[in-house]
Amino acid sequence: MPEKKEEVCQEECFHPDMLERARKSMMPQETLQDLAELFKALGDHTRVKILNALYHAELCVCDLTSLLDMKQSAVSHQLRVLRAGKIVKSRKEGKNVFYSLDDTHIQKLIELGLEHVSEPVHRR
């Protein structure tokens, strides 16, 4: 696909000060990879629905299955992905496993994401 004029520089330029500042500020590769994995885990509609539910209440797999109208195996699979990404945590109570958001960072990510997608188009 051809690039649009507003997407590329119309004149070749070089900004050594800004480039050096950006280079010094770059995160280590491992941190960037971890961040990419976090966003990848958040990038699935079903997992976002699960997070939306867990934002409001700690729920067991049966609750999530009923709420989302999904099979337990499908919900469990998505929860495994979210647990692996340290996005949700679980606790066992008797024969049930309850899930909740891992910490306040995840809660804030959801809040910031909602704020971003709720902005009027003209403000973007």
Question: What is the rounded Rg?
Answer: 20 Å
Helix content: 55-70%
Q: Strands of the largest sheet, in order across it?
A: 1-3-2
Give the averaged pLDDT, no decimals. Answer: 92
CATH class type:
Mainly Alpha
Name the structural class.
mainly alpha
Assign the CATH superfamily.
Answer: Winged helix-like DNA-binding domain superfamily/Winged helix DNA-binding domain
Q: How would you sum up the global shape?
A: elongated
Distance between the termini: 24 Å
Low-confidence residue ranges: none
- CATH fold-level topology: Arc Repressor Mutant, subunit A
Largest sheet: 3 strands, antiparallel
| Beta-strand content | 5-15%
Counted by DSSP, the helix tally is 6
Quaternary structure:
single chain
Order of helices and strands, N to C?
A: HHHEHHEEH
Number of domains as seen in the coordinates = 1
Give the second-level CATH assignment, the architecture. Answer: Orthogonal Bundle
Question: Can you count the beta strands?
Answer: 3
What's the SSE blueprint?
Blueprint: H1 16-25, H2 29-42, H3 45-56, E1 59-60, H4 61-68, H5 72-84, E2 88-93, E3 96-101, H6 104-118
Antiparallel strand pairs: 1-3, 2-3
